[in-house]
């Protein structure tokens, strides 16, 4: 029996008759609304199944969960903060799935690659590729055989060094980062790449929270959230925009549930009724688990149309200004006077926008916006949180700034229980930016690096994710290196992206698991397998276990140490791989520029990560006494000027943004073409995936089992377009070079979402997202505003 067969037949420990994997992709899903709350026994059963499926050793799982260790283990699942002093790994279903996925007993060996050509593997889906298990040794693509063959580490480093040194311009190389990389790996990576001579740092952040950083920077002078976990204990109202914490930040539900329990209002804006935002049973709460009880999360649940949040927030503001006139709301005049600027211009814009325009764009009624305003007016301390439902739009920066405007109006900034909280994605995506993974290369950073290393660094901005693809398409880039992630699958416009990636002459992937980015290759490619965060990372002559550090959404920096033995003795750590690539490359390029390649002693840094942290301390603000402070329980908080009411904008004040509403967001543009079948699609995550990593084919809270190719559509749209629940359709997108973009075979599911809006999972829908459809000032693909039309599927009748 092949690995694949045994995977598909994995027995279901909970006794529920649903396979984790369904190899038959044409099978109809079972769809039924999920009766339970989020969390609860459903979550515990699911963990058991996934641990069994991966044959993940329970001993390893247990030791990762163990508390009272000198350094906690930072869950690679998400970037939500943790109040627990010893371990940042409070029980969380999807955190446990992430760990089971990494500590799996399955392995991809050289024999696997000998058995399968790359062309053959290209026909496998994302689930099947990663389900083969952990990568075990470095491999090189042999184009003649169309297979990956083993290569020694030193040979691989030499090859990279030679190819990079041969480029006539360092800007012809691209250096991608996914947000799992530790601060230590990220710091070394950006240092190496800048010494090499470019700021080409396409980053998962470009597809994710870029708009939060850009918008908050402009409004508040800091690009990060201003609240800490403790603030959730004090807020009177929490406004949650465009996120699905039940799946993507399950530990956040604990904080929301506690807030709801003590009477705080949770006000949700989401086109889908997400179970986690409705009801939650905390698996850590013995009473709830035994009695079958659960906590209602949202006190109000508003369902705007996709892209309608800026209008919704403006509507709330309009209602508040009206309430002010009648004495039922008072802006925080003292705060506004002393700390902000631009209120009048914003207010004039808000008042000039008609209710009709706000209703049309938001998809909410005036009454609903007024109801939200009432809650706002009655709350002394307000937090606003948001994620991809806000940031993956063309006008995302303006939406973020409108949310910040709303907070500023009541002075909900820089005091306990109040502030802005963009809820980050990858567990260290925020830290990677702090470490300098930034294609826009802020001047202070370049100055600091030059001062520390005495070498001129590039100042010209580099390519972000979308521009990296344009550069490949235009043959302006030829070497691609990825520190983690699955670039080819995570990026938009899949067909185009794949042909762009094939133009890369060398494609290097530093990875833990096999994915499509390893397969869509041109001439030369390398797979460099690395340790995961759960594994013990031993370095130096004495092979001492190392600690890495990460930063969560609340700007807490803390240490994380792996606990399980590496999946293979050939694995190297990310910092070690980066250091070796740096050495092999810089030895070949720096002497030609008259620079001593020993300007950085890479080996010494990797032998003891404390030394990397000393470098970070010397260059990056906020890291004084880094090593000493890291070893404290929970680590330390990077100060945030805005949270102390210091606004480091050019005017020294928090800036109200007076941006006009977009004239018409996508759902309005498509409305006129609705009878031709056009709808606005959002591409989102199922409960059984971590970005492009597919754990299984179920989406429990949305009631879907056994299939990912589903399209959630309003029943009235189905009727109007002549389809029925259960029909199969192809999704047809906008044209590229005269041909429509396509994603075939989706099963229609009638669902509670506003008319004109529909939803399906990413990355299956990425083929429909045009590369050109990228946010203003962010370049973030508009993954939540994709024009599609439905065509009866030829494949299934
Ligand atoms: N288990 C798990 N955890 C994860 C991830 C994962 O894939 N799996 N991914 C990680 C990463 S990198 C990230 S960035 C985060 C993502 O976390 P989320 O942002 O929660 O991820 P999505 O699944 O994209 O969900 C988008 C949510 O926004 C809503 N939405 C879509 N469009 C709009 C809109 O226009 N307005 C409003 N108000 N709502 C809208 C959708 O209905 C959905 O509930 O999660 C992180 N954590
Ligand atoms: N249509 C659409 N597209 C999207 C989104 C969307 O909502 N809709 N969301 C976007 C967002 S928010 C993000 S963040 C991106 C995600 O983009 P990425 O971060 O590039 O993608 P992931 O799926 O998280 O990467 C998974 C791979 O990472 C590798 N990996 C896992 N752990 C480690 C590790 O510890 N070290 C190393 N070196 N490698 C590791 C494994 O090989 C695995 O196959 O996708 C974006 N794309
Ligand atoms: Mo993300």
UniProtKB/TrEMBL annotation:
Disordered, as annotated region: 1-33
Domain of life of the source: Bacteria
Record Pfam families: Molybdopterin, Molydop_binding
UniProt cofactor(s): Mo-bis(molybdopterin guanine dinucleotide); [4Fe-4S] cluster
Start and end residues of each Molybdopterin oxidoreductase domain: 134-503
Domain Molybdopterin dinucleotide-binding: start-end pairs: 679-780
Family matches, as CDD domains: MopB_CT_ydeP, MopB_ydeP
Coiled-coil intervals, chain numbering: none
UniProtKB keywords: 4Fe-4S, Iron, Iron-sulfur, Metal-binding, Molybdenum, Oxidoreductase
The keyword 4Fe-4S belongs to this UniProt entry's keyword annotation: yes
InterPro entries the record matches: Asp_de-COase-like_dom_sf, MopB_CT_YdeP, MoPterin_dinucl-bd_dom, Mopterin_OxRdtase, Mopterin_OxRdtse_a_bac, Prok_molybdopt-oxidoreductase, YdeP_MopB
SUPFAM superfamilies documented for this protein: ADC-like, Formate dehydrogenase/DMSO reductase, domains 1-3
NCBIfam families referenced in this protein's UniProt entry, alphabetically: Fdhalpha-like
Family: Belongs to the prokaryotic molybdopterin-containing oxidoreductase family.
PANTHER family according to UniProt: PROTEIN YDEP (PTHR43105:SF4), RESPIRATORY NITRATE REDUCTASE (PTHR43105)
UniProt-recorded name of the protein: FdhF/YdeP family oxidoreductase
